[in-house]
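Input.
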Amino acid sequence: MKKHLLPLFVLLLGMNVHAQQDFFAITGKDTQSINFNDFRVIDPASGLSGEKVFTAESSAKVFSQTRKAKVTEDRNSSHNSQAATMAALAYNSSNNNLVYIPMFSSNVYILHPETKEITLIENNIGKASSCDINSHITRMTAGYDGNIYAVNNAGTQFLQITNRNGQYEVNDLGIIKDDSSNGKNSFTAIETGFGGDMIADTDNNFYIFAASGNVFKVSIKELKAKFIGKIAGIPDNYSVNGSAVNAKGKVVIASAKGAPLYEVDLGTLQAQQIPGEQNLHIYDLASKYFANDKASSVNTLANIDVYPTRVNEHYVNVYMNNKNSKGTIHFNVFDISGKNVMTQSLNVKEGSLQDKVYFKNLVSGAYIISIVDASGKILLNKKILVTE
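Output.
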């Protein structure tokens, strides 16, 4: 069950965590077993709760994608949008929706936080069974490519949830197997690999944080889970049930046992306790941030950055702080074939620049931002992903 996630830099000037709703949790009632209470906003810096987005007592407005009609669900069944056993949540920042799958069900639910409406995706690909702990979906996250990914306890199903023109589709990418170097730290064993949560990086790799505190890196191409270490600095009996990347680039972990939140550096796997509420029963965490979301700068002394790297608002912020820089720099955008699809000149005044660059006529996809100075020297190369 859910009881049995890098060095990263994101520059967000003037960020007000309390004002942003981009970090969410599934919280439970104060019981020994999993018992869904609500989806709520979490401030990962202070460890304090915010708005309750949807609760076990909310009036559920469910629309079936397959039947193209509103449906009434049986709340006594495990196959409903307010099922007691919830342990997998992702946040899709391109449309500000929460995506989740009940543990004992194969149904996928898309919650629209503003309207409280829910889209039901009746999934025939997933094979969750209430009597098979191996099949329960307990790990879920948004991928850098804009899709949602979910993994069951045993790694026998790696699901990809896509959204094309408003229609959701579920695909099974295959079975995740242990890397040959894992030894006794098996990804597929209950004691060492089950439960927990997952995060994604900007190269669309995934890191699975097992309930045991073990961390595995998963590659989609190889479908292998490589053990990279165990979280240090948490109590021996700490059950890692939720994980999500915060705006600072650290991984926040949470427990279903009512324990404090911790912030983990993926490079060292060292954890530090976060102040705030310490009796929250958290079954899963989700955010809009990704691991390794940092500048690939040719000249690190230039103190220059472009953010965010996953663009859903048609612009990026450009920041520069270097007293030796002045004059004009050129902001170039290249598509994956290497074609220059956009160029804009920016003026640096007294070594400082803080500006927005708006994209025009760029279709969804991956691009490379290249910033060069007047002499043609490259100051920054950085990959971004433009979404709808």
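The longest strand covers residues 327-335.
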